[in-house]
UniProtKB/TrEMBL annotation:
SMART domains xrefs: AAA
Source organism phylogeny: Bacteria, Bacillati, Actinomycetota, Actinomycetes, Kitasatosporales
Highest taxon above the source species: Bacteria
Topology relative to the membrane: Peripheral membrane protein
Domain ABC transporter stretches: 19-253
EC number(s) per entry: 7.4.2.1
Protein name per UniProt: ABC-type polar-amino-acid transporter
Reaction catalysis annotation: a polar amino acid(out) + ATP + H2O = a polar amino acid(in) + ADP + phosphate + H(+)
Length: 259
């Protein structure tokens, strides 16, 4: 492959974009859930997405991973448009790690098997190499000693950390988190947020839908506020939390910060 020469002019204004959404629209029947979404996420950037229930945050994440097809617009990951289907899609999807509210681990497989499966099937890794990588990642998220257990034998916080390790095992370019701590008991929330903070510090590009405003303040480079399928406001966490501009954001913040 020959390298494409990069001129000054070719460098996009946002710096070094990894995920680019342009004019993305999506309907569920009559409901216009994503409306003219333009969003560029830079390499190594941590973007926290917040907004009222039903505003389209999960749909946005699912669209980036193409778990949800869009009606119009463009989504590109690392310069490549998201393919509609097939082998290319599987490959591109593997570049996007996703962690959901419910951990979605395979119940009948051990923790180790959960973390090796995708590496072997999609990334075509050797079993030994996959297991080594899985053990390293499980250690990194603090559940190395649980490798031979089944998911049901772990706490919610441990299961979620396994889910993070499983996503990381694919060596993704970007990680999407959709309310990763909202199904957890309070005492387990921090252990998961801590793993995410560490990932952010290591330079992982992350999109995080969360109600954890402490995490947003301490780990996000940017807060994206959605309401009614639109991005209403984007700002640094300091700007957003101390001086939200839109009435929708002011209203939302007054509800979540004072309850
Ligand atoms: N598969 C679907 N079919 C029909 N409508 C859907 C579907 N998925 C989501 N919706 C609707 O689309 C809108 C946006 O949903 P979405 O799950 O993206 O919101 P959200 O911001 O993630 O909300 P929450 O904070 O409650 O998770 C909601 O009105 C929801 O009811
Ligand atoms: Mg959601």
């Amino acid at each position: 492959m020959t390298a494409v020469p990069v001129t000054e002019d070719a460098v996009p204004p946002a710096g070094n974009p990894l995920v680019v959404l342009e004019n993305v629209n999506k309907h569920f029947g009559a409901l216009h859930v994503l409306q003219d979404i333009d969003l560029t996420i830079g390499r190594g950037e941590v973007v926290v997405v917040i907004g009222p229930s039903g505003s389209g945050k999960s749909t946005l994440c699912r669209a980036i991973n193409r778990l949800e097809a869009i009606d119009s617009g463009r989504i590109a990951i690392d310069g490549k448009p998201l393919p509609a289907e097939g082998r290319e899609l599987a490959r591109l999807r593997a570049d996007v790690g996703m962690v959901f509210q419910s951990f979605n681990l395979f119940a009948h497989k051990t923790v180790l098997q959960n973390v090796t499966l995708g590496q072997i099937r999609v990334r075509k890794s050797e079993k030994n190499a996959a297991e080594q990588r899985a053990r390293d990642l499980l250690d990194r998220v603090g559940v190395g000693s649980q490798a031979d257990k089944y998911p049901a034998q772990l706490s919610g916080g441990q299961q979620q950390r396994v889910a993070i390790a499983r996503a990381l095992a694919m060596n993704p370019k970007v990680m999407l988190f959709d309310e990763p701590t909202s199904a957890l008991d309070p005492e387990m929330i921090n252990e998961v947020l801590e793993v995410m903070r560490q990932l952010a510090q290591e330079g992982m590009t992350m999109v995080v839908v969360t109600h954890e405003m402490g995490f947003a303040r301490s780990a996000a480079n940017r807060v994206v506020f959605m309401a009614d399928g639109r991005i209403v406001e984007q700002a640094t966490p300091e700007q957003f939390f101390s001086n939200p501009r839109s009435d929708r954001a002011k209203d939302f913040l007054s509800k979540i910060l004072h309850h």
